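Progress against Task 2.4 (sequence-to-structure conversion) is shown through the following example record, which the project officer requested during the mid-term review.
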Amino acid sequence: MSPKENELALTIVQKMMLENDAFSLWLDVKLLQVAPGYCKITCPVRSEMTNGFKIAHGGITYSLADSALAFASNAHNIKAVSVETSISHTKKVVEHDVLTAICMEKNLSSRFGIYEVTVKNQREETVALFKGTVFRTGEKWIETF
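C-alpha cells generated for the chain above:
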C-alpha cells in the first residue's frame, strides 16, 4: 500500500476508536499498526475480565479479535460490518496477560471481505484463532478527491 493509503487507514481507525468505539476503549486497546486489510492491536487482561475459573472470559479474546477485524476491514475507507464470525480458543488467558491480535485480509470483493485474526499472548503463544466475514456498505468514511 502507498504511504497515502496507510495514512488514510490510520485516520479512519483513529476516528473509529476515539469517537465511536467505547468498548475497545474499555478493553484498553492500543493500535500498533494498520493498513488497508491489516491491523495489529493489543490489550492487557485485567481482573474484571476474568470469569469464575480465574481465566479471561472468552468474550475478551473474541472482542479483541472483532475489533481487529473492524479496523482492518474499514481501513479501506469503505464502511464494513461483520456478518459472520467464529473463534477457536486454543490456550487459556489469565489476568496480566497482554494479548495481541493480528488481522489479515484473505479475500476482498466489492461487497464482502474475509479475514483471519490470530490472537497471541506476550509469550507469542497463540491463544485464539478467529475468522470473520464483513459486508462492505459502499459508503466512505472520508471523502477523498
